[in-house]
Specification:
Layout lengths: L37 H22 L5 H15 L8 H13 L4 H15 L6 H11 L1 H10 L7 H18 L1 H8 L6 H6 L14 H21 L2 H4 L3 H23 L11 H15 L2
Helix pairs in contact: 1-3, 1-4, 1-6, 2-3, 2-4, 4-5, 4-6, 5-7, 6-7, 7-10, 7-12, 10-12, 12-13
Length: about 290
């Protein structure tokens, strides 16, 4: 994997987007599925593509922190109207914002989180991690809700869902994040409570103390999922209501799999049956 920038088709301007190689094809949850209004799907995908490309910059182990921040700053400049074709994802996102009239703040927020990813490698405690999720995860749900014209009263339950999804993803990837990026989202306070250090994440399997730390994180995340169960009932748009119900169910299922799986030994992930069951259960709950 190299950090060479992507070349724009005409070859005139070097691109700033660069793949990280980190689980790009292993997404846990549907993005802009058929449940989303047809006229909004392209805008959902534009935001996802923008966030994914920014995330890939932050996760590229061959780039320096300064280079990552420079590239992310350039994406932000394009969002704010700067000319240039060196970030197709940012340019497409800018066009989406103009067309929909949705605030650029959610884009700025996720870029803030990715700058943290470029420069911050450890988190003190749960509150420190939740402060990060406010910018890395919550804007995704808020963008979807704003696209659909939903009330901002939905934000607290949406934030809970997005934060839960973020933490679950952190736990899935905790081994690779540590081994490849020296980045640890598992709070230092949780490790200290078990009298272990981050080095425990470098083992081939989880030791009992690390297992207890992971379970404490899952307990906290379970509380977020329970709060998120109130989201579908607050959403007016039927498609988004159904999709949110499906995602809540998927989060609950991934949490249960992480209870019984070891993310150090192998990546714990959802199975096909999980998706089928979640769509069925989410669809029925979304009708309520």
């Amino acid at each position: 994997m190299t950090a060479e920038p992507v070349e724009i088709r005409d070859g005139a301007t070097p691109g700033i987007e660069t793949p990280s190689g980190k689980w790009r094809s292993a997404e846990n949850f549907p993005v802009g599925s058929f449940l989303i209004r047809r006229d909004l799907r392209a805008h959902v995908h534009a935001f996802y593509c923008f966030a994914r490309n920014a995330d890939d910059i932050a996760d590229n182990s061959t780039l320096t922190a300064d280079d990552k921040v420079r590239r992310l700053d350039r994406m932000e400049a394009i969002i704010d109207g700067a000319a240039g074709c060196d970030s197709p994802a940012a340019s497409a996102m800018r066009e989406s914002l103009i067309e929909t009239g949705v605030s650029a703040q959610h884009c700025h927020d996720v870029l803030r989180a990715f700058r943290l990813d470029a420069t911050k490698l450890r988190y003190r405690d749960w509150d420190d991690l939740m402060a990060y999720c406010r910018y890395s995860a919550s804007p995704v749900g808020r963008q979807l809700l704003d696209l659909h014209g939903e009330s901002r009263e939905t934000w607290p339950t949406s934030d809970a869902l997005c934060s839960a999804l973020q933490v679950l993803n952190h736990l899935q990837d905790c081994a690779d994040d540590y081994r490849l990026l020296d980045r640890v989202y598992l709070p230092a306070s949780e490790l200290a409570a078990q009298e272990i250090g981050v080095e425990a994440l470098g083992a081939p399997v989880s030791c009992p103390k690390l297992r207890r730390a992971l379970d404490r994180m899952l307990d906290r995340t379970d509380a977020l999922v329970e709060t998120a169960r109130g989201l579908p009932g607050q959403v007016i748009s039927s498609g988004l209501r159904w999709e949110s119900a499906v995602i809540v169910e998927l989060a609950a299922r991934l949490l249960r799999r992480l209870r019984h799986g070891d993310p150090l030994a192998a990546r714990v992930k959802l199975k096909k049956l999980d998706f089928l069951a979640a769509f069925a259960i989410g669809w029925s709950r979304g009708l309520g």
